[in-house]
Automatic annotation (TrEMBL):
Source species, domain of life: Bacteria
Principal cellular location given in the protein's record: membrane
UniProt protein name: DoxX family protein
Membrane topology term: Multi-pass membrane protein
UniProt xrefs under Pfam families: DoxX_2
InterPro entries per the UniProt record, alphabetical: DoxX (IPR032808)
Statement: the UniProt record of this protein carries the keyword Transmembrane helix: yes
Protein's UniProt keywords contain DNA-binding: no
Keyword tags: Membrane, Transmembrane, Transmembrane helix
Spans through the membrane: 12-31, 51-71, 78-97, 103-121, 133-155
Subcellular location: Membrane
Amino acid sequence: MQTRTTETFRPIAFWATTFVIVFELTAGSVWNLLTIEWVEVQLHHLGYPHFFSYVLGVAQAGAAVAIIAPGLRLIKEWAYAGAFFLWSGAVVSHVAVGDGLESWWVPLMFGAFAVASWMLRPADRRPGTSRRAWAVSIGLIVVLYAVSFLTLPAVEAGMHEHAVKLGWIAE
């Protein structure tokens, strides 16, 4: 028998962790598909080819939609696994080239959020959900993509400064 606290906390924790990873997946897909400077610098630093950003961008867009959409149980499982592999792969890539904690703690955190979101999924996020649930999911994806595009100029400037600070590029 679940306690009242668990009944209250679980859905809040699920939606908080899910929102974080879906927003990161949408923003990451925008960054990768537009190949902003930060993406180019990181790919070069880690030794990945330029086209890898497009592969990641398409995969991130698909994962964001699958995770936020109601139902789609099998696809959702693959999306969660892909998101976890994306972020754990980023951690391993940064560690392999000798980067410190300042480079790999963020993907580690997103990987942990993905695991938490997957573990906290409620039963109503499985097949047989309503049109309203689909409408809310689609609306959320549209809003997250709009925010990603609108905040891109500010993000690019901040990430440029961060890349300079890390020594990956010259001023």
